[in-house]
């Protein structure tokens, strides 16, 4: 009887923690000195697959080291489980700074019965400097899971400079888009056409 009661209490505690952890969350950013602001804009593009009406930023975290990144993703993310609708991008004002490591995870589900969910993960890491030459670095930039696109980036993590606008777009793509790609399987360990609807991530900086 006591064991059953303990198990019941433990199960209830776990369920409470899980439900709380999936509440939309944006970390409170400390006051930023005038002129030091950076705008992070995260957008959802469903132009090819309009039945996907909303995506969720399941995680956005930054770190000084790989271990710091993992820790922050677990207990101190910048964003977690935040919904973003098409044509209603999220805008976040953050301070300038340099982060050698960053991670963004996106997820979307269609309103159509039987449709697959879509997801992609982008890692920003200074470690690419060690493994890619300058040409490859400009072409590949970050490690992608679930994305069919090539991000153009400088392979130095995330560098936020004052008054810049950093735009990250998650786009769900259809089969006609996939048919136009020859080597897309080289950019994702997830078997596209399997459990997930293919997606791509684009990243740009406006100065």
TrEMBL record:
This is Lipoprotein.
């Amino acid at each position: 009887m006591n064991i059953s009661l303990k198990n019941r209490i433990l199960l209830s505690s776990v369920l409470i923690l899980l439900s709380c952890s999936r509440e939309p969350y944006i970390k409170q950013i400390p006051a930023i000195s005038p002129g030091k602001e950076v705008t992070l804009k995260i957008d959802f593009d469903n132009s090819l697959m309009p039945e996907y009406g909303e995506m969720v930023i399941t995680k956005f975290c930054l770190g000084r080291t790989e271990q710091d990144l993992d820790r922050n993703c677990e207990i101190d993310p910048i964003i977690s489980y935040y919904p973003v609708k098409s044509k209603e991008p999220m805008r976040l004002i953050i301070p300038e700074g340099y982060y050698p490591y960053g991670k963004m995870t996106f997820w979307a589900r269609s309103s159509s019965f039987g449709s697959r969910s879509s997801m992609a993960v982008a890692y920003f890491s200074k470690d690419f400097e060690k493994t890619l030459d300058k040409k490859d670095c400009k072409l590949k930039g970050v490690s992608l899971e679930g994305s069919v696109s090539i991000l153009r980036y400088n392979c130095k993590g995330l560098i936020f400079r004052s008054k810049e606008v950093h735009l990250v777009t998650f786009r769900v793509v259809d089969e006609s888009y996939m048919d136009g790609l020859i080597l897309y399987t080289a950019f994702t360990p997830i078997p596209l056409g399997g459990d997930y609807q293919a997606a791509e991530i684009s990243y740009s900086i406006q100065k």
